[in-house]
Amino acid sequence: MFVGDSTTRQVFWAVAKKLDQKRAEEEFLVMLDLELDGWQRNLQFVSDNVTLRFIWDPWLNSTGLDHELEKFRPDLPTSDSTGEEAEKSAGLILLGAPGIWNARHGGKNYMKDFKDAIDHVIPYMDHPHAPEKGLLSTPGRFTSRLSSPNLLLLAPVQVPIYDALSPSREATITPEKIDLMNDYLQQTSAHSEADVVWSYSLMTWAGRAAYEESGLHIIDEVARQKADVLLNLRCNVAAVARGSSFDRTCCTNYQPVVGTQSLLILAGLIAFPGLVFLRRKYGVPVDRLLPASKNMSALVTIGLVLCYCFYADRSQVFEKAQTYFQEKEFWSGCIIIAIVGMASIRKILTSIPNNAKPLSDFQDQAFLSRNQTDEWKGWMQLLILVYNYTGGETKLWIYEIVRLFVASYLFMTGFAHTLYFLRKEDYSFGRVATVLIRRNFLCLLLAYMMRNDYTFYYFALATSIWFLIIYMTLRIGINIPAFRAQFSLDMYIAFIGMMLGIFSHRVTHLKSGSINPVALLDRLLYFITIRNSRLFNATLTILALILLPGYWAVTRRSPDKDDYNWWQPYITFIPILSFVVLRNSNRLFRSYYSKTFAWFGRISLEMYVLQNHIWLAGDGRGLLRLGIWGPWVETAVLTPIFLWICWRIAGATQLLTGWIVYGDGQAPSGAQTEAKSPSLQGWIGEEFGSSSSSWRPSRDRGRKGLLSGILTKVGSSLGRRLMLMVVVLWVLNVTYGL
């Protein structure tokens, strides 16, 4: 329902065009052909069971308006409401403040008439925001509800371009009159529950560009934006109750903070930093109650990062913007990444000790070394950032490449963990706990802080599941293929990585002479890969050069994502294995790597998880903005902050993983396969873990804190400590909404 003058009628037609643009434009042209008196009439537009009505009432004093106000109900009908009541109340009523008409035709009594009209409708707008009606937040303007409420809104007086008005209008519609009426409207609404759409006034701040030649009416684009605000206000609240995704939170409040979120914010902003401050100030008395300094610093880091994620992506502190694909931006990002990576290409510095054993670290790095896989993960993660930032999912060919990146991560998961288990033969519970906690610790905390399902951070979950599958396959020999159907898009690639890891491990042992090729399979591998190594390498290289473009040509035939997703599980291994072969086809390629890409690869998990909240916005559906400078400048400011946080959080989670699994001490030799964590030295002015720290007594070095002692007493084994963590998570789940 739209009630007002011609400025309100523009919004009516903008909403109608969103429902059925062709028919709305036809009816609008019919109205333009009428005489002036014909314009000043009531209108109705029906599309798909949605009825729009416009009441011509520039004074806001008609009987039709009174009738609609009497019928209006602010809340949706309850189960005991009659169908008649539900039919009567309009879902949305927009009243146009009668300022223009009063200024033009009100004469000396313009202000009195304006006040009378506003005072007449305000009592109907003073509807109570009762919690029992389904509120999600405290009383206030445009509060979020469990279901979309019926809304009664008032639009402010539209400020015209005064010097563009016709002489007759310019003489009567003056800035003094318009400002006086809007001031009264602001004062009145401040002392009532009336909802005034003040954002409409902000939309015309662009000046003449937002108006038609008349200087009184806005252009169609601005009218469409006003229509979007109305539709979002009316329709988005129910969607917000199901989540906080950016594409459905426009013009609505964020979900209110629950108890668990408040607890995490309190710990991150006050408790952990406060404890560090007390430790520095009072030394030993407080130090006895706290974990070791390096572990406390990790807690501070994670707490502050969680709070930063919350305020960046779940509040109005930062602005948000939509993503629109622009091919120029996408290619610019790719070129910048390529230049930075190529500029940091370095030779892998590996020396062979004099007393080298047959199976040495130098030989292990010959095929898919750690530097190679870190580099691989690094440039893929950077391209994924560009893909998400530029909205590249709208292009099928870019989507296909990114799906290959995800499959490549799982391939490396299978390859790396298989090699570790075969070389170290470490199937201990500590190893399993280390990998799972390292992968999931940050994601679990973010799920509570951001009110997301844990499955939203699906990459950590997927790699964790595949790690367990590989562990059980190698340790217990379980027949795992029954699980494959649950992983539709990447159901085979991790197994292929696992098979390649087994193959590489066996060939390495054959080359070193640590095993004799007695078995038939070993003799076959020895003959193909060692005695005829040049022919073997040349054959694989030629096949890779043929299959890689062949794969690209075949996938170009996929008409859409669904078709490509159907084929992907069966053909993904082709480009991945081709890349592995080409990357390791000769000694020169194996001996060099991009140091920059490798650095990014070591923090790729944190980049993948945190990008959704502190680089992008709205769980990755929008762009984070400061609202101060232009988009490129703000991106240049936010990107280093994002990367620095990822670097810090990578070190913090690895330290906490060692603390949880092994106590205050470090993991035993060989138990950790993650890249060396970034040092936390210098964080908030302390040298954590340094023996030269002036505030920490020397007798405290190596001593466990009271909290660690309590953990030891509660559960002297790793299993009991993990059980305690599970109980805490269960309590948080049960009490989350309180």
From TrEMBL:
It comes from the Eukaryota. The keyword Transferase applies. Pfam families: Cas1_AcylT (PF07779). The chain crosses the membrane at residues 258-278, 298-318, 330-349, 401-422, 456-478, 484-503, 535-554, 566-585. Residues 247-476, 482-664 form the Cas1p 10 TM acyl transferase domain. GO terms for molecular function: transferase activity. PANTHER family: N-ACETYLNEURAMINATE 9-O-ACETYLTRANSFERASE (PTHR13533). This is Cas1p 10 TM acyl transferase domain-containing protein.
